[in-house]
Amino acid sequence: MCLPQVLLAALYTTLGQLSLPGAERLHIELIHRLNRLISTADFNLTSNLFFLWIVLWLNISRLDRKFDSIRSIRLINLSRKLQNGTKPSLEFVVSESVSSNCRKALPLPRNLSLIAMSTSVATRSALSIQNAAWTSLVSRSIASWDELATAHQARGFLQQCDSLDDFLQGKSPLMFWFFQLRSAFASQKRMKKWSRDNLDDYILLPASNGFVMRSECFFVSHFWQTKENPDPVGTYLRLHQKELEPQNWSYIWVDWTCMPQEPRSGPEEAYFKRCLKTVPSIIRNCGFIYFYPPYEPRLWILYEVTEYVLTCDGGLATTPDVEEFLKHVDEMIETGVQATLAKHGYGCSFERDKQYLTSWLELIVLMRRLSLDVGIIRQIMDHMTWFNMQVQWYPGMELRRFDGVLVVNGVEHKFTPFPQWVSDTLSCCSSANENG
Fold it and tell me: Per-domain residue ranges for the chain?
């Protein structure tokens, strides 16, 4: 039973004990409201605590028509905390509604205090369920690594995380990626939003050589149809499912599904930032699949296509939906990145992202112009992804990315310097929250 269901059961049981006039109507109305809330497509308890509090407060207030000024002040303060990103616990929310100060302003039935006790038990039960799901995810992941690569170090790093939040906050020095299991991807009707309640849908793969391989994993490049959901009705999901059904693969990475989305808790935000900086490595090491709507000059999509085509052997087959992007990759090599971006009107919703992607594209294109081996290009890009070094040295080469200089065999080549905040997190991931 998930946490919302446990909460609902606790409220049902407690409110059912009320013997006041109108309690039965109150009980039925509150249950109906919570049922409607919980049945919504993207219900998230953490993000809806404020709403649950209001529902409880309004229904309790109906037992007495007096205006509850103290509770109103608490309601406003709680609202401000939520707006500032503070996520109060469920026990706190419920205790606010039945606190002694509130009772002075509006006497409450004694039995109502059982709600705080019931929801506290419900929370502990839900945490126990979450911990069990986390333990299962760790065991399932480690078991799969033994089939992919030697994993002694990665196993130790992951096992030192006692809970999901430990993991999300970065207790392990090694980065791990959430990959959705094939069975979960194939059975969904819409792309699932990442949720800590759906850990059974995932496997964790270490961001290290030998674990993420093109023979096992796919990266989904996609437009965002809306800021709230990349594929609201599942149109492009069904195309991907049909395309992937006859192929041999095990895991898939979709930003919407495999990275925590807004609203994010503190630990989820920490993981999101770490993961965001490593997306280029996911692209380089996975199979690449896409279904794009009619062409629009979206810079994140151009970057994803370029990253894959210029750092992987084999490239992409030319299909109508990717054809324009592939032409522009060739055009960047021939005439330059900035000229191509300006000519076709490529842009991002966030200027920081555009600065970063422009530098990244210029460096990739420069290395291809210099006919560097794909293996060397991948090595340089991997080091840029994982290490925030001022200078990188290779046989016959020196890279100073923050100065915009690549020296090859004593010859200095220029590109737009990477911004100094490159070690920080970008504003959005591959298309996230900017519609591409």
Answer: 3-127, 149-289, 292-436
Matching residue, tokens 């945490």: 127
Cα 172 to chain center, whole Å? 18
* Nearest by Cα to 154 from 202, 203, 206, 204: 206
Per-residue pLDDT tens digits for 255-273: 999 999 999 999 999 999 8
Q: Report residue 61 as tokens.
A: 């207030």
Percentages helix, strand, coil for the chain (3-state, rounded to 5) are 55, 10, 35
Query: H or E stretch including 364?
Result: helix 351-369
Please report how many Cα atoms fall inside a 13 Å half-sphere around the Cα of residue 144, on the Cβ side.
Answer: 21
d(CA 149, CA 155): 11
- Taking alpha carbons only, the member of 102, 95, 88 closest to residue 120 is 95
* Sites in the chain below the pLDDT cut of 70: 1-127, 146-151, 421-436
pLDDT tens-place string over residues 126-179: 567 778 999 999 999 998 886 655 567 889 899 999 999 999 999 888 899 999
Whether this prediction's pTM lies above 0.85 is answered by: no
93-132 CB burial, b ≥16 within 10 A, e <16: bbbbbbbeebeebbebbeebbbbbebbbebbebbeeebee
